[in-house]
Amino acid sequence: MNIQKVKAYGTYAANEPLKQMAITRRSIGKTDVELEVLYCGICHSDLHQIHNDFGHTMWPVVPGHEIVGRVKAVGEHVSKFKVGQLAAIGCIVDSCKTCQFCEHDTEQFCEEGTTFSFNSPDKYMGGEQTYGGFSDLYVCDERYVLQMPEFKDLAAAAPLLCAGITVYSPLKHWNIKEGSKVGILGVGGLGHIAIKIAKALGAEVTVFTTSDNKIADAKRLGADYAVLSTDTVQLQEYNKKFDFILDTISAKHDVNQYLNLLTWEGSLVLVGLPPESLEVGAFNVVYGRRSFSGSNIGGIAETQEMLDFCFKHDITADIELIDVEQINNAFSRLEKGDIKYRFVVDLQNNI
Ligand code: NAP
Ligand code: ZN
Questions:
Q1: 98 CA → ligand 2 middle, Å
Q2: What is the distance in A from the centroid of ligand 2 to the CA of 297?
Q3: Where exactly are the structural domains of the chain?
Q4: Is the shortest distance between the CB of 90 and ligand 1 below 6 Å?
Q5: Calpha distance 219→171 (Å, rounded)
Q6: In which family does this protein belong, per the annotation (predicted)?
Q7: Which is the most buried residue in 12, 14, 18, 103, by most CB within 10 A?
Q8: What confidence score (pLDDT) does residue 349 get?
Q9: Ligand 1: does its nearest atom lie under 6 Å from the Cβ of 64?
């Protein structure tokens, strides 16, 4: 396997700033696409990984998994992509391709282990970790590369590659449609896109936020109602109101107060990844046959479906576009919750 040196931004240890480094990627193979990275979003999962919140970060780590780029080269057997066109890479860059989950377009559950776009053992590189999108190029098998519609603001579309699919997939799986009553917990990167997608699916949307400065903004984003979740009296007014609640909160919180807002047989679906365990009180699910469940990103075909849906409905993220030199400041602001609602790094001629 030929390899090439690529410039990237990453860190060698938890709590150290990201800095420029040289990483190795495989050279383009017969079914590979080589993407010049244009934009890459900053997801809270990148922050969890650089803090080693889950205890499995492989160092050095180069985060970034909301990658929009332009095709720089294609392998001789590539049929879906041409040099010069826009394309995108999200969270998944490899899987076994043959297990029941890969065969049914849910590569995120691959029985042999999904290879994620960063911090995963890379089969092509002898198990060395994959390196993410904060770099000048990415090489990936065309099966995992997305066709990128010509969004008016391409940078603002980058967050769809993780935040978009992570909220779209459960909204579709739990059949959210015209008239569904949907609650969204947390108005961050995922939460603000969830408002837009749930509205486009026809739902009545209520958001629950700990930030009073997001109440008016949530309505601007399309929410029908916005509630300050620290106000327990207000919360009780929503008892048994929701068919479905999407929980995007990144830190430990009490899910029981939200389970009580579900109607009979309603579902609360966790997509946020608080590093600590959450406790569920028996009576909050037993009563009313409620479900507490979870969802992990979405497969490649569904990611493509989501991109096309968002293009059709003119949905992108509200972003702050930054240069790569501002990346450490962006991570510390994300940690403090000081972002409306997603940072995107401009990597063109910039690294
Ligand atoms: P984000 O932009 O930081 O948003 C998280 C939001 O959670 C914050 O804006 C805040 O909303 C709320 N929050 C934070 N701390 C809180 C606390 N202590 N109590 C209550 N609410 C709190 O993060 P993100 O990028 O949207 O990601 C959200 C979570 O989803 C992260 O854990 C991330 O790792 C995870 N994730 C999971 C998947 C998956 O496939 N399952 C994919 C991507 C990301 P308010 O200010 O409105 O209260
Ligand atoms: Zn993500």
A1: 25
A2: 8
A3: 3-162+298-304+316-346, 164-294
A4: no
A5: 20
A6: Belongs to the zinc-containing alcohol dehydrogenase family.
A7: 18
A8: 75
A9: no
